[in-house]
Amino acid sequence: MAVITPASGPAGRQPNFVVIALALIPVLWAAVAVVKTPAAVLDPSLWPAQWTWGNYSGILTSSQFLRPLVNSIGIGIISTVIAVCSPPWPRTPSRAAVPRQGAC
Asked: Which end of the chain has a smaller Cβ tally under 10 Å, C or N?
């Protein structure tokens, strides 16, 4: 019976590197697009000619961004507290006989 094993050595790691590199391209593009001026966003060059940090100050002072951000953080905190502090409800009848307490 033949056993299939993953390829070892540099050739076996090459597909993973390609996938990671392709996945990081949009992240790099977004990180560079943030410091471009609005007129330069559609410019095909990767590095902006003029760097600006005004995009951050503009979005962080906008109520259209801050209110949903605060809501998302609040929902995340509340759901985490509920998940950590709630008792583990039995999913099968065999677990019903073992009472357990929540973490809080």
From this structure: N
Q: Could you list the pLDDT tens digit for every one of the 104 residues in the chain?
A: 454 555 555 555 566 888 888 999 999 988 888 888 888 888 888 788 888 888 888 888 888 888 999 999 999 999 999 988 887 766 665 555 555 565 56
Q: Which helix (H) or strand (E) holds 38?
A: none
Q: What is the DSSP string of 39-98?
A: GGTT-S-SS-SS---HHHHHHHT-HHHHHHHHHHHHHHHHHHHHHHHS----SSGGGTTS
Apex CA 58: angle with CA 57 and CA 61, to 5°?
Answer: 80
Q: What is the CA radius of gyration of the chain?
A: 25
Give dist(CA 90, CA 61) in Å, integer.
46
